[in-house]
């Protein structure tokens, strides 16, 4: 399903310094506990939470695809001091278009699209699961930068989680960033209600 491949302005990640300027507003980490040092962003509308460094820029952008216009919701954190960018997004596609595709194929194609958009060479890829939903993980190289990404399909919603950093210098919180990503069970049930009934 090629129409799902370009659902992210991934090329912007290569210009790490300019990411903050293209954000429409700052997202307050609603789920962060005052006594906790772990910065957690929770998107009620997106149905997820994730540990990501502050500040986090949020943007909504309409994008044309082969199945019509969709809205891309992005959350981006940039750490210029270590030349690193964290990226989380979700996009809702028409349920009828996604229902005709194999979910594993959708996430695999989305991961390949991310590599292409960044001009990256793939190093590894593997299937994975998140709360019973199909996913795909990739790693690649784009110039002097290392890319790691995870993609999950929950009903008609595609989630993307990307980390871009200098090759050989992953941030200390890389694993926490990926492993902290959690779905809101109620939103997941709403998104997949028709499929699971």
CATH superfamily: Mog1/PsbP, alpha/beta/alpha sandwich
Strand content: 35-45%
Q: Mean pLDDT, nearest integer? A: 80
Distance between the termini: 25 Å
- Strand order in the largest sheet: 1-4-5-6-10-9-8-7
* Rg over alpha carbons: 16 Å
Uncertain runs are 1-37
CATH topology: Protein Transport Mog1p, Chain A
Assembly type of the shown chains? single chain
Q: Number of folding domains?
A: 1
Shape label: globular
What structural class do the secondary elements suggest?
alpha+beta
* Main sheet characteristics: 8 strands, antiparallel
User: For the record, what CATH class applies?
Assistant: Alpha Beta
Q: Report the strand count.
A: 11
What is the correct CATH architecture? 3-Layer(aba) Sandwich
Roughly what percent helix?
10-25%
Order of helices and strands: EEEEEEHHEEEEHEH
Number of helices: 4
Describe the structure.
With 197 residues, this protein is of the alpha+beta class. The protein has one domain: Mog1/PsbP, alpha/beta/alpha sandwich (Protein Transport Mog1p, Chain A), CATH 3.40.1000. It is 19% helix and 43% strand. It contains four helices and eleven strands. The protein has helices at residues 95-99, 103-117, 174-179, 185-196; strands spanning 25-27, 40-43, 48-51, 56-65, 68-79, 84-92, 121-130, 133-142, 145-154, 157-166, 182-183. The protein has an eight-stranded antiparallel beta sheet. It has a three-stranded antiparallel beta sheet with strand order 2-3-11. A hairpin with a 2-residue loop joins strand 9 and strand 10 (157-166). The radius of gyration is 16 Å and the shape is globular. It starts with 24 loop residues before the first strand and ends with a helix. Residues 1-37 have low confidence and may be disordered. Residues 28-39 have a biased composition (Low complexity). Residues 1-23 form the signal peptide. It comes from Pseudomyxococcus hansupus.
């Amino acid at each position: 399903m090629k129409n799902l491949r370009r659902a992210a302005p991934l090329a912007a990640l290569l210009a790490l310094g300019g990411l903050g300027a293209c954000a429409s507003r700052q997202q307050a980490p609603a789920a962060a506990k005052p006594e906790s040092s772990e910065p957690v962003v929770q998107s009620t509308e997106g149905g997820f939470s994730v540990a990501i460094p502050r500040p986090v820029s949020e943007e909504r952008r309409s994008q044309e695809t082969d199945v019509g216009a969709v809205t891309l919701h992005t959350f981006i954190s940039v750490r210029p001091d270590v030349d690193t960018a964290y990226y989380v997004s979700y996009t809702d596609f028409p349920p009828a278009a996604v229902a005709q595709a194999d979910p594993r194929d959708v996430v695999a194609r989305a991961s390949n699209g991310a590599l292409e958009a960044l001009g990256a060479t793939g190093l590894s890829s593997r299937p994975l699961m998140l709360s019973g939903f199909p996913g795909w993980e990739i790693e690649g190289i784009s110039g002097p930068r290392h890319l790691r990404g995870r993609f999950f399909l929950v009903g008609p919603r595609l989630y993307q989680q990307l980390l871009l950093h200098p090759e050989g210098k992953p941030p200390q919180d890389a694993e926490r960033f990926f492993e902290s990503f959690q779905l809101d069970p109620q939103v997941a049930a709403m998104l997949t209600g028709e499929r699971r009934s």
